[in-house]
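Re: [ENG-882] Designed sequences occasionally contain unexpected residues at chain ends

Forwarding the minimal case from QA. Structure tokens:
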């Protein structure tokens, strides 16, 4: 009899940290590079990647994890939001501006990134499931071909 725990969802902090690393490399680094592009093009790249990048990175985490990984990218997205917000505030204070904690803006950002991360992770899991089914169908067809030859 199969263990019921093996079929249920289990939250794994490991994938929060992996996704956080993915956000650092695949989300924040491109935003930093895009900020060096002058003019409107740089702003369009940044604006598009701020939303699309969350979905892409979370989708990659959902796709590459072996098990179901939905909440982990959302938690990592929340961490990235808080750390980015704190980083921007620290830079502003170091530049001589007064500290302005806009908790309403932070809450809206957290909700948006959390939701986009859930969407991306769900898409990644869906693509992973579709790819797995396609591979299984190919293996079944090949096994059927082998049986016919014999």
């Amino acid at each position: 009899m199969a263990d019921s725990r093996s079929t249920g969802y289990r939250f794994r902090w490991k994938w929060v940290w992996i996704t956080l690393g993915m956000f650092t490399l695949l989300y924040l680094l491109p935003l930093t590079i895009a900020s060096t592009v002058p003019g409107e093009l740089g702003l369009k790249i940044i604006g598009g990647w701020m939303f699309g990048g969350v979905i892409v990175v979370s989708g990659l985490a959902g796709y590459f994890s072996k098990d179901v990984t939905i909440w982990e990218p959302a938690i990592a997205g929340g961490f990235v939001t808080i750390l980015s917000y704190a980083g921007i505030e620290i830079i502003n204070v170091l530049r001589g501006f007064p500290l302005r904690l806009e908790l309403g803006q932070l809450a809206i950002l957290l909700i948006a990134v959390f939701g986009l991360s859930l969407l991306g992770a769900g898409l990644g899991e869906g693509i992973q499931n579709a790819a797995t089914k396609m591979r299984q169908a190919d293996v079944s067809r090949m096994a059927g071909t082998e049986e016919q030859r014999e």
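QA comment: On inspection the terminal residues look reasonable. The chain has one domain: 12-149. Proposing we downgrade this to a documentation issue.
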